[in-house]
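ARCHIVE CARD
SHELF: 3
SLOT: left
DATA:
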Amino acid sequence: MVLEFPDGKTAQIDTYWWDWGDYHEYGVDNVVDFSAWLSEQELSEAEYSYLREGYSEVLVKLIEDYNYREDEE
């Protein structure tokens, strides 16, 4: 997934996770809605920094939170 930050810089971040030989892939059904939701989230400086550096752990957690919210609605 490619994220674009307010300053125009982008980061390409993998949306999969390897866990002891198991492959987990994460995604969103509605990228536009996810983008709007993501822009409303209050991220810590550390989370923001990790996203800018391309670490997938933070993005995967955000995708999980978003998908959980979608399942609840």
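SLOT: right
DATA:
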Amino acid sequence: MNNSTQKYKWKLIDYERFSLTLIILSCYFYMGAFIATYIEPSENGKIMFYLTCLSLAFAIFFLYKRHQIIKLLDKDEHVQ
């Protein structure tokens, strides 16, 4: 395994961790939006909903980048 492949594997692990962390964070934002909107009405429900969408968008971005690295690593394995 060369240095470049190892570097991509570490990036893959990082992207998985970032995605999981952002998905968990978006769950907390969603629960905060739910509580702020339905249980204890306030003006902050919209902000929490937007933060939920933003964190999910970043999670999807990192999952997409992860998928690209997996395809690149598979391609490199077939070449060698």
